[in-house]
Design the sequence.
């Protein structure tokens, strides 16, 4: 499956649009939405989704969080969440 950067960014924003204000999504939610097959193909999308979220954060559209607090996507290690800014 070939998924472009824009596809991933659109998937992040689309899932966030479906959530209540202030709620977040996990990168795995985005990866599974982009690759809904029953297989494990979504796993290879995890890093590309994190990079897409970082690009959106750089544009001020989302923020990356850990334990509910904003973090720098360039230095964050471990599980993250993505939420709209505002």
Sequence:
């Amino acid at each position: 499956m070939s998924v472009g950067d824009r596809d991933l960014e659109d998937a992040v924003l689309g899932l966030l649009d479906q959530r209540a204000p202030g709620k977040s999504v996990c990168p795995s939610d985005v990866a599974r939405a982009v690759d809904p097959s029953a297989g494990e193909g979504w796993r290879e999308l995890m890093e590309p989704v994190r990079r897409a979220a970082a690009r959106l954060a750089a544009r001020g559209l989302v923020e990356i969080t850990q334990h509910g607090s904003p973090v720098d996507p360039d230095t964050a290690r471990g599980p993250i969440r993505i939420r709209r800014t505002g």
Observations:
- The mean pLDDT is 93.
- The longest strand covers residues 62-66.
- Residues 3 and 34 are 8 Å apart (CA to CA).
